[in-house]
Design goal:
The complex is a heterodimer. Chain A is mainly α. Chain A contains twelve helices and four strands; from the N terminus they run H-H-H-H-E-E-E-E-H-H-H-H-H-H-H-H. Chain A has two domains: 83 residues, no CATH class; 220 residues, Orthogonal Bundle (MetI-like fold). In chain A, 75% of the residues lie in helices and 3% in strands. In chain A, the strands form two sheets. Chain A has a two-stranded antiparallel sheet with strand order 1-2. A two-stranded antiparallel sheet of chain A has the order 3-4. In chain A, a hairpin with a 3-residue loop joins strand 1 and strand 2. In chain A, 33% of the residues are buried. Helices cover 36% and strands 20% of the residues of chain B. Chain B contains 14 helices and eleven strands. In chain B, the strands form two sheets. Chain B has a seven-stranded mixed β-sheet, sandwiched between helices. A four-stranded antiparallel β-sheet of chain B has the order 2-1-4-5, with helices on one face. In chain B, strand 1 and strand 2 form a beta hairpin. In chain B, helix 7 packs parallel to helix 8. The longest helix of chain B is centred in the middle third of the chain and has 18 residues. Chain B starts with 19 loop residues before the first strand and ends with a helix. The relative contact order of chain B is 0.14. Classes of the chains: A mainly alpha, B alpha/beta. At the A-B interface, helix 9 and helix 10 of A face helix 2 and helix 4 of B.
């Protein structure tokens, strides 16, 4: 187990290196010069050269990448701009701050949003899927299946404002979405994020309903489930103790993949509800051609996905004893 | 060898009859393509402590019959008529709770493929133990001890360690032994073994059959052994029922059916089986054609499309009327050929074969 984790983490680091190199090349090879943006409208060639030098942009691309990489461990200093202590993922010249610090500030928002939505997705998706499978072929199953198709067809930027209008403005059931740190006030943290969670999870929940239902129905037809019934196990025990275990495996697999999509969905949700998370940071970085920030967000996002996938694989071994982590 | 009475007294109150009595059992499935007549008016009895071999091709209704005894069919798509008496209890009309208490306790089942039939997610010990806990109200500790005892009884070495292993850590033969341990954990009166050796290689097959026989002698369990292998029946069963298209084609003691088979289908099964003492030059003759579709079974005798003797027996009878098994008791078969004709044909066949 330990050696497995060490190898997986080492592999993850290699993957992140490759991703960062490619992203670095893609971003810095574009013919857009951030130095020129800072230089102002009347730009002297000398000033431009100085800014470029201070940014380290007068060196070959691979040297720039090396500096960036080394900066993660040693920190960097940008003359005329500011200091960037380790771990330095670059310095945003647009917002005048180290990239890492900006991301750390925004991270709790996106984390709260994604984790909360995950809980809603898994809890509701699996629950409704189980109900549908339990009542397979009956009205309740048909309702669940039909509404999951509707749910899966909705879009965040459509449902979000719609729900916000009804629940927040018209009915005033819940407060306008914003971020209250959980350490400050857990109740407000919860109520203020409720709407974004629901909106972000709607599409996914519907998918998990359908998947859980079909997996359960499939598992219930398996031989080992028939054996359990032949042993005199009650329908409930057969359903929850036997079939459920088998149905969970593909759901966990898909969830590992969906986590990435969920992070993507968080960007749209943050925009929709003006939450100041990493997604919003990324969108603004694109608008400002803030390449260091964009690079930092990309790497952190990639790291999150790679790490979560390792977690999912470990989870596998707990669900299915046939999976051995070696 | 125990003699078996094949007579039933449908509708009458039951005295001390056979241990298991199936009367006029029909099982129909409704599918998208129509109604499948999987079992059609089947009757048979089983005495305590004996083994009944049920033989037939795939789709002849062997497994369906036995799943009906356990009440394992999906009631939404299945219509079951007739009666199944286990001593003084009727099973087709029993409610869910009654059947739950019966399954794994008085009636247990062993399935064909022990790899797929055991849960991959639970240890062998837990899978055996939970049956014991469910039916005997045992504690976790008692159930575990019982599981170890059962594993030892079915000949699994080091049961104290093996009890905590998962099915995928067992070999095929070991898995089937564990399956048997699981089936026998509550000392059932009736054990239904659905092709228990089909997925195993021949040496393991013999071991498993010996084990079943041994356990039967020790505990007096009645066994229904479903198989398509007449060799297995010859070595293990007391009585045989040959099934074709959801009906009984022939039944009797093993000696009667294998020595003096009466039904052309039984002849076909026997001549498609290699024999150790026969000349190597004698070709095996399979039963020609394929089993009939049970969506739309043939009129008359269901075997007539594959039978070589319809002209001899009388085409009107074979094509138009469903033969019932006769005589009512003892060695009987469902065929219109006269006893004289059968004897002549059989003699001719054995001469061919020798």
């Amino acid at each position: 187990m330990t050696s497995y984790l060490v190898r997986r983490v080492a592999g993850a680091l290699v993957i992140l290196m490759i991703i960062s190199a490619i992203t670095f090349y893609l971003f810095y090879a574009v013919p857009r010069d951030p130095a020129r943006a800072f230089c102002g409208k009347i730009c002297q060639p000398e000033t431009l050269a100085l800014i470029r030098h201070n940014l380290g942009m007068d060196e070959p691309l691979f040297v720039q990448y090396w500096h960036w990489l080394a900066g993660i461990f040693t920190g960097r200093e940008f003359v005329q701009f500011g200091e960037c202590p380790a771990p330095c993922l670059g310095y945003s010249f647009a917002t005048q701050e180290p990239v890492f610090g900006a991301i750390v500030d925004r991270f709790p928002v996106t984390l709260s949003l994604t984790l909360g939505a995950s809980v809603v997705i898994l809890a509701f998706g699996i629950m409704t899927g189980m109900i549908a499978a339990w009542k397979v072929g009956q009205p309740l199953d048909k309702i669940a299946s039909a509404s999951s198709v509707v749910g899966a067809s909705l879009q965040i930027y459509f449902v979000g404002p719609l729900l916000a209008f009804y629940l927040v403005d018209t009915l005033q059931l819940i407060p306008r979405p914003s971020y209250v740190p959980i350490t400050e006030n857990p109740v407000e943290w919860f109520t203020h994020l409720l709407l974004p969670w629901v909106v972000l999870s709607i599409i996914f929940t519907a998918n998990y309903t359908r998947m859980t239902r079909s997996q359960m129905v499939e598992q219930l037809a398996e031989d080992y489930v028939r054996t359990a019934r032949a042993k005199g196990m009650s329908s409930k025990a057969v359903f929850f103790r036997f079939a459920w275990r088998g149905a969970m495996i593909p759901i966990v697999t898909i969830f590992g993949v969906d986590l990435a999509t969920l992070l993507g969905g968080a960007i749209i949700t943050e925009q929709t509800f003006s939450l100041h998370g990493i997604g919003e940071l990324a969108v603004r970085a694109v608008q400002n051609t803030d390449l260091p920030m964009l690079l930092g967000v990309t790497i952190v996002g990639a790291a999150a996905i790679v790490l979560l996938n390792i977690l999912v694989d470990v989870l596998y071994a707990f669900i299915d004893p046939r999976v051995r982590l070696t | 060898m125990t003699t078996v009475s094949w007579s039933g007294e449908p509708g009458t109150s039951r005295g001390p009859g056979p241990f298991l009595s199936v009367r006029d059992l029909s099982v129909e499935f409704s599918t998208e393509d129509g109604i499948v007549h999987a079992v059609d008016n089947l009757s048979f009895d089983l005495e305590k402590g004996t083994t009944l071999g049920i033989v037939g091709e795939s789709g002849s209704g062997k497994s369906v019959t036995n799943l009906a005894i356990l009440g394992l069919h999906d009631p939404a798509h299945t219509k079951i008529s007739g009666e199944i008496w286990l001593e003084d209890q009727e099973l087709t009309s029993a409610d869910g709770t009654t059947m739950e208490q019966l399954r794994g306790n008085r009636v247990a089942m062993i399935f064909q493929d022990p790899l797929t039939a055991l849960s991959p997610f639970h240890t062998i010990g837990r899978q055996i133990g939970e049956v014991y806990r469910k039916h005997k109200g045992a504690s976790k500790k008692e159930a575990r001890d019982r599981a170890i005892e059962m594993l030892r009884r079915v000949g699994i070495p080091q049961p104290e360690t093996r009890v905590d292993h998962y099915p995928h850590e067992f070999s095929g033969g070991m898995r089937q032994r564990a399956m048997i341990a699981m089936a026998l954990v509550c000392d059932p009166d009736l054990l239904i073994a659905d092709e228990p050796t089909t997925a195993l290689d021949v040496t393991v097959q013999a071991q498993i059959l010996d084990l079943l026989k041994e356990l039967q002698q020790q505990f007096g369990t009645s066994i229904i052994l479903i198989t398509h292998d007449l060799g297995v029946v010859a070595g293990t069963a007391d009585n045989v029922m040959v099934m074709y298209a959801g009906r009984a084609a022939e039944r009797g003691t093993v000696r009667e059916v294998l020595r003096e088979p009466q039904h052309p289908y039984t002849w076909g099964l026997l001549s498609s089986m290699p024999r150790l003492n026969a000349s190597v030059d004698v070709p095996l003759t399979p039963v020609r054609g394929t089993p009939p579709s049970l969506l739309n079974p043939p009129s008359g005798c269901p075997f007539h499309p594959r039978c070589d003797y319809t002209k001899l027996a009388g085409p009107e009878l074979c094509f138009g009327q469903r033969p019932s098994i006769s005589p009512e008791t003892g060695h009987g078969d469902a065929c219109y050929l006269t006893l004289e004709q059968k004897r002549e044909l059989r003699t001719a066949k054995t001469e061919d074969h020798a």
